[in-house]
Specification:
Shape: globular
Number of domains: 1
CATH class: Mainly Alpha
Largest sheet: 2 strands, antiparallel
Order of helices and strands: HHHHHEEH
Radius of gyration: 17 Å
Strand content: under 5%
Number of helices: 6
Strand order of the largest sheet: 1-2
Helix content: 55-70%
Structural class: mainly alpha
Length: 172
């Protein structure tokens, strides 16, 4: 019961502030919430676990974090903001492997994603963008896809952390 009340108390400010926010503002809030959790978890993992993978052929910790970073840049690019100079989406998962460089690259990708979202007008939300597989969605729909993508990989990293005896900091 205590946990439920604490959860409701925590969620109330999010609910109240969300009532007057734009879709873009709500999107940024959800991204920031997940960014904080993902970075907290990644920071709690020892550097040696960044090479951990549960089985051959599956992304390790650093590759999973860089996959999220690549996705952040990819969606921002779909919304009209290419990655900064020097960011190569095709090689990020293999290039960034050390804990501090991975964390910084992830932070930079979140900053780019959020600053791009701030530039999206209400009229832009209906604009259709095409995925590499040929499917097409509105920018608003892709915002939901982004949050799902980030959440999916946050869950993956929670599992990796627990396999290494580490509880997510927010669940202690």
């Amino acid at each position: 019961m205590k946990k439920l009340l604490l959860g409701l108390l925590f969620a109330l400010p999010l609910f109240v502030t969300a009532q007057n926010q734009s879709i873009q503002g709500e999107f940024i809030g959800i991204v920031e919430f997940n960014e904080e959790r993902m970075l907290e978890l990644a920071e709690a993992l020892p550097a040696e676990t960044f090479a951990y993978t549960p089985s051959p052929g599956v992304r390790n910790v650093s590759q999973s974090l860089m996959h999220v970073a690549t996705g952040n840049y990819f969606f921002a690019m779909m919304w009209g903001s290419p990655p900064p100079e020097g960011v190569d989406l095709m090689s990020m998962e293999k290039t960034y492997t050390e804990k501090e460089e991975v964390l910084q690259a992830l932070r930079d990708s979140y900053a780019h994603l959020k600053s791009t979202a701030e530039t999206i007008s209400d009229e832009d939300l209906a604009t259709r963008v095409q995925f590499p597989d040929g499917s097409e969605y509105s920018i608003k729909t892709t915002m939901f896809i982004v949050t799902e993508h980030i959440g999916e990989h946050k869950g993956q990293l929670v599992a990796y952390a627990r396999m290494n005896g580490i509880a997510p900091p927010w669940s202690k």
